[in-house]
Amino acid sequence: MRPVAKGLDILQGDKHIFMGYLLPTLVSIEEHLNKKLTEVLYVKPLVNALLKGIRKRFHYLYKYNDLRIAACLIPDFKLRWIQDENEKKEVTELLKSVQEFNIKNAEVHSSTPKEQKILRETDDFFIFNNTLDQN
């Protein structure tokens, strides 16, 4: 059950709190549990129940493009966590379309020096919970 505990530690930790860690972590948990199926004898029903529960609870998340793209943009993962070649091609096309959109959007919405000055002037305006604690 170490893979489940390790995966939960990663997802609940304070170092890897990016949305892109979710799917690769789930894939890794499943891979570790599948490997355990061949190694264990007495706890196979428990491992099978964990696999079934993880698939039932989280299976729909693999369809969200934003989660898939976020995972691929983390340098440690890239496309390595995707096992199916067709899905790799699909996500690669998604990444290309996001890149094209960003390039097109950057040309249309590039900030002028005047807009940059306004942004700098408003830097001290934004306060969040952590800055409220300091006052």
Outline the structure in words.
- This protein is mainly α and 135 residues long.
- It has one domain.
- Helix content is 66%, strand content 0%.
- The model is unreliable at 130-135 (pLDDT under 50).
Spell the H/E element sequence.
HHHHHHH
What value does the Rg take, in angstroms?
21 Å
Number of helices: 7
> What are the low-pLDDT stretches, counting only 5+ consecutive residues below 50?
130-135
Number of β-strand runs: 0
Q: Structurally, how many domains make up the residues?
A: 1
Overall mean confidence score, pLDDT:
80
Organism: Lasius niger
Protein name: Zinc finger bed domain-containing protein 4-like protein
Summarize the helices and strands and which ones pair or pack:
Elements: H1 2-12, H2 22-39, H3 44-58, H4 65-72, H5 85-108, H6 113-121, H7 129-132
